[in-house]
């Protein structure tokens, strides 16, 4: 069965809801399986065409679009014209190898990012075959009946058939940031897009309320599909750090070219070189000093970080988050489901007639009630009535996924209420039939209650309410007493019971009811007043075991963990203590936050561990207050109203399972397992990525600087050059693409989570790094010139043989230096340090092979004017490398001991 085309004369918004549904050959119960299959094959999946990526050729050519490369290409032409063919070919090889490496790395990084997008495939709630099911958005077809609620992203263009306070944020489509109120009545045929209130457009976000609509268009035929070129495009591969590095690289290139020009003049006028020869030397110097490969290596480092985070269930939506995570100094986390398991069980029932306990685990509808002494007990009328409110004021469903394994569809707390009703021997099916639901007010984190209106078995109607106990108490005037009599409310008694259960870490809900002689037409908030309080139920939701370890890890890493929860202060405080967040966690409530001025809030926020009974607005103020003190704040969220604080936080983290699409859109990171420990794992990866970027830089700059300085010194001092221009180019080509790149794959250094967080504004080129560049460069100069002098004067070798030794010693030094840099903070000369990662070993094998070829292959000898090196000389070079390593190790230890550079001590410079 295929859906007929859109009626040409009447657009969807001008049809009545029923007409639209009928035209699409759908109905209340939704489509059946066969219709879905047919329509899917006719209309195709509900997806926008993949954004066009630059083709491979364009991406390859883009690698050459860089001032330095132009300079190099110009030099190659010049070299060729001057008859230096070998030099010209080697320059072209340098350029070519760099472009290929850049091309491959960028491609891999882009692939990694698009794979992440696929992992975040959104879902839609639809009615099919009379049942509510959740399907991937791609599987939605015209005629499907879609359910919308706050925080959902509208999966396709819908003609709304029923709405309840539905507000939709259509800014992606119209640019208008005010949410639009939707209605189900038809609109004039010529109404503008923004005025078609009967429609919900694909890609827009539900800001509040609920709705239901029939799909009229999917995929590219939706309104957003018509204008979309940008939506869903791959995130750009740039971050603040990368921009900082690019700026630095440009500045460095400029300075190097300026320096090269001066050297050229010195060489030609001061040292009597010919123009052509001088130019070749200077070109080689410029090529060797400019870190042209650096941005590409750093991009791959970030991409590897993103991949590692994804494998630990943290999906990075925006690349800069990788860097920021590493600098996180405060994590503000939700409680339920993130720090706790969100596996609720109802444990304690408190009514006017006393306390009962429920036995049984999980959601299995088996178990029993016992009294305080542990003796089996029957539910009295009051307890039965309390459980009935919980059973019927409830949207969850339990099902047996495997024999004996019960799962909940919907809110775990509501699932626990269903299991409790079974343990208390209530007959859920009969009750549901007797008390047919007429209307409802869904749970809302702002109002903290849920209400349902039911037909009463003997005429009239009854209202059931459940919610945060103090909220429900405030709406009650009486309480359920013995013999079905309502008596005056005694709030203090209930408050004491709430505190007792809360102090045990129980999450407490209050329940109430109200009878109506005649059923009201519809339920609205004004009817939820003057209620009869039925009692309390306490739930246990144990902390996640891994969260306890993760909290401890944060404490050692100098990261403050704060809990921001909608739950009661006593419950939240007890759970915080169980998690080890503090000995006696400082707890404040949303009301306290409200009463504190912006000026005083930072101090309060800093010393508080638990914020209870907060609303999303409080969250936003708390983030701002913490940031005003210079903290880098990671904040979790799941609801539609969390979007502003997720955007405000330095790293907004949304829950992948529990979270709404709105929260995910606003977040930079999405956790696919909703787990606090995952955030800490991501911070650890973030720190590793930053360390690795620093390692790449710490390795690249001095090695580039050292060889350049050696030649410049020889040139200025009028000595014979220790290496030729073409040899410099060779070193640069072989090393830049192997050793430097291997650092991108480094695992976390031991103790990475025992350091304080780095200051967010810490410059990449810290004083320690600058010192390293100078110190190591000087060691390189000494080694290169020293080996050259030794070879000529003491060993009596000719120029070419001496130069071969110098090229080889530079490579040896670079390899040893790599091992030093792998541990910026710890000792490098350890069995562990000597082992190396596969990437490091591969890179070294590559360099060794290349050097053997360079030294011993006859055609290479011809090309580069090299000579075979005797074994004994080779060993001397290795000894030079070992000495170099020892000197650097002593330097690192000495600097650490003397505390010259703060960063080496792992303390955060505030
Ligand atoms: P967190 O913010 O850490 O996830 P939370 O789940 O307790 O904590 P909310 O979901 O905002 O936060 O809930 C706030 C309060 O509203 C809860 O403590 C509970 O008292 C009440 N509540 C939660 N879910 C429901 C529900 N389905 N029906 C009625 N009341 C609820």
TrEMBL record:
UniProt keyword Oxidoreductase, yes or no: no
Source superkingdom: Bacteria
GO biological process: intracellular potassium ion homeostasis; intracellular sodium ion homeostasis; potassium ion import across plasma membrane; proton transmembrane transport; sodium ion export across plasma membrane
Keywords: ATP-binding, Magnesium, Membrane, Nucleotide-binding, Phosphoprotein, Translocase, Transmembrane, Transmembrane helix
SUPFAM superfamilies: Calcium ATPase, transduction domain A (SSF81653), Calcium ATPase, transmembrane domain M (SSF81665), HAD-like (SSF56784), Metal cation-transporting ATPase, ATP-binding domain N (SSF81660)
Localization, UniProt: Endomembrane system
All copies of domain Cation-transporting P-type ATPase N-terminal, residue ranges: 11-84
InterPro entries: ATPase_P-typ_cation-transptr_C, ATPase_P-typ_cation-transptr_N, ATPase_P-typ_cyto_dom_N, ATPase_P-typ_P_site, ATPase_P-typ_TM_dom_sf, ATPase_P-typ_transduc_dom_A_sf, ATPase_P-type_domA, Cation_transp_ATPase_P-type
A single Gene Ontology CC term: plasma membrane
Membrane topology of the entry: Multi-pass membrane protein
Ranges that cross the membrane: 60-82, 248-269, 281-304, 696-721, 769-788, 800-819, 839-857, 869-888
Keyword Kinase applies: no
UniProt GO MF annotations: ATP binding; ATP hydrolysis activity; P-type sodium:potassium-exchanging transporter activity
Family (UniProt): Belongs to the cation transport ATPase (P-type) (TC 3.A.3) family. Type IIA subfamily.
PANTHER family in the cross-refs: P-TYPE ATPASE (PTHR43294:SF20), SODIUM/POTASSIUM-TRANSPORTING ATPASE SUBUNIT ALPHA (PTHR43294)
Name this protein carries in UniProt: HAD-IC family P-type ATPase
Organism this protein belongs to: Verticiella sediminum
């Amino acid at each position: 069965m295929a859906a007929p085309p859109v009626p040409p004369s009447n657009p969807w918004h001008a049809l009545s809801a029923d007409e639209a549904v009928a035209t699409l050959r759908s109905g209340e119960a939704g489509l059946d399986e066969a219709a879905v299959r047919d329509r899917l094959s006719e209309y195709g999946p509900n997806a926008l065409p993949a954004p066009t990526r630059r083709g491979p050729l364009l991406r390859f050519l883009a690698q050459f679009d860089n001032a330095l490369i132009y300079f190099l290409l110009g030099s190659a032409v010049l070299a060729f014209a001057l008859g230096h063919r070998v030099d010209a070919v080697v320059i072209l090889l340098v350029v070519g190898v760099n472009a290929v490496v850049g091309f491959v790395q960028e491609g891999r990084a882009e692939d990694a990012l698009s794979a992440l997008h696929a992992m975040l495939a959104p879902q839609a709630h639809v009615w099919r075959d009379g049942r509510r099911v959740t399907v991937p958005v791609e599987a939605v077809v015209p005629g499907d009946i879609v359910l919308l609620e706050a925080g959902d992203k509208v999966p396709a263009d819908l003609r709304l058939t029923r709405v309840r306070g539905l507000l939709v944020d259509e800014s992606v489509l119209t640019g208008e940031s005010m949410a639009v109120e939707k209605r189900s009545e038809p609109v004039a045929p010529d109404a503008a897009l923004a005025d078609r209130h009967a429609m919900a457009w694909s890609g827009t976000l539900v800001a509040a309320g609920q709705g239901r609509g029939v799909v009229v268009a999917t995929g590219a035929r939706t309104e957003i599909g018509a204008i979309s070129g940008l939506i869903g495009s791959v995130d750009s591969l740039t971050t603040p750090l990368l921009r900082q590095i690019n700026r630095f690289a440009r500045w460095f290139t400029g300075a190097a070219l300026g320096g090269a020009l001066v050297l050229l003049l010195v060489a030609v006028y001061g040292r009597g070189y010919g123009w052509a020869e001088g130019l070749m030397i200077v070109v080689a110097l410029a090529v060797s000093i400019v870190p042209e490969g650096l941005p590409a290596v750093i991009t791959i480092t970030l991409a590897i970080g993103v991949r590692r985070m994804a494998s630990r269930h943290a999906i990075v939506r925006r690349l800069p988050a990788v860097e920021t995570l590493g600098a996180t100094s405060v994590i503000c986390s939700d409680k339920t489901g993130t720090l706790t398991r969100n596996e609720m069980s109802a444990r304690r029932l408190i009514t006017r007639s006393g306390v009962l306990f429920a036995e049984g685990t999980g959601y299995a509808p088996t178990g029993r009630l016992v009294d305080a002494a542990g003796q089996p007990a029957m539910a009295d009328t009051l307890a039965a009535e309390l459980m009935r409110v919980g059973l019927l004021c409830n949207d969850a469903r339990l099902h047996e996924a495997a024999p004996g394994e019960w799962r909940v569809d919907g809110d775990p707390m509501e699932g626990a209420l269903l299991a409790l009703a079974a343990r208390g021997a209530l007959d859920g099916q009969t009750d549901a039939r007797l008390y047919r639901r007429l209307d409802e007010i869904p749970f809302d984190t702002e109002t903290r209650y849920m209400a349902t209106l039911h037909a009463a078995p003997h005429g009239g109607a009854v209202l059931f309410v459940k919610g945060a106990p103090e909220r429900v108490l405030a709406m009650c005037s009486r309480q359920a007493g013995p013999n079905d009599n309502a008596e005056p409310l005694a709030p203090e008694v209930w408050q004491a019971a709430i505190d007792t259960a809360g102090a045990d870490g129980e999450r407490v809900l209050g329940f109430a009811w109200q009878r109506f002689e005649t059923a009201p037409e519809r339920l609205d908030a004004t009817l939820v007043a003057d209620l009869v309080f039925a009692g309390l139920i306490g739930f246990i939701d144990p902390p996640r075991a891994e969260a306890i370890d993760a909290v401890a890890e944060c404490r050692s890493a100098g990261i403050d963990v704060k809990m921001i929860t909608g739950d009661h202060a006593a419950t939240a405080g007890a759970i915080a203590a169980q998690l080890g967040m503090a000995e006696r966690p400082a707890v404040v409530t949303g009301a306290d936050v409200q009463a504190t001025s912006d000026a005083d809030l930072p101090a309060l926020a800093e010393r508080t561990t638990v914020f209870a009974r907060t609303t999303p607005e409080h969250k936003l103020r708390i983030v701002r207050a913490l940031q005003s003190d210079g903290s880098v704040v990671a904040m979790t969220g799941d609801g539609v109203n969390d979007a502003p604080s997720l955007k405000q936080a330095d790293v907004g983290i949304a829950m992948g399972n529990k979270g709404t699409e709105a929260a995910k859109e606003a977040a930079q990171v999405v956790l696919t397992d909703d787990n606090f420990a995952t955030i800490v794992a991501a911070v650890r990866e973030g720190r590793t990525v930053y360390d690795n970027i620093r390692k790449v830089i710490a390795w690249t700059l001095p090695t580039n600087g050292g060889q350049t300085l050696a030649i410049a010194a020889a040139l200025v001092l009028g000595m014979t050059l220790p290496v030729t221009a073409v040899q410099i180019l060779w070193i640069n080509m072989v090393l830049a693409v192997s050793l430097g790149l291997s650092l991108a794959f480094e695992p976390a250094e031991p103790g990475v989570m025992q350091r304080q967080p780095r200051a967010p504004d810490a410059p990449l080129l810290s004083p320690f790094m600058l010192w390293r560049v100078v110190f190591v460069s000087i060691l390189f100069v000494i080694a290169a010139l020293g080996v050259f002098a030794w070879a000529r004067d003491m060993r009596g070798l000719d120029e070419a043989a001496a130069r071969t030794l110098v090229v080889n010693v530079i490579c040896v030094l670079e390899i040893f230096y790599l091992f030093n840099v792998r541990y910026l903070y710890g000792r490098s000369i350890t069995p562990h340090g000597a082992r190396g990662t596969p990437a490091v070993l591969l890179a070294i094998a590559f360099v060794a092979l290349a050097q053997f070829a360079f030294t011993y292959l006859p055609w290479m000898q011809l090309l580069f004017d090299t000579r075979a090196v005797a074994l004994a000389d080779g060993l001397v070079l290795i000894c030079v490398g070992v000495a170099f390593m020892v000197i650097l190790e002593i330097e690192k230890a000495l600097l650490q001991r003397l505390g010259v550079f703060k960063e080496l001590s792992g303390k955060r410079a505030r």
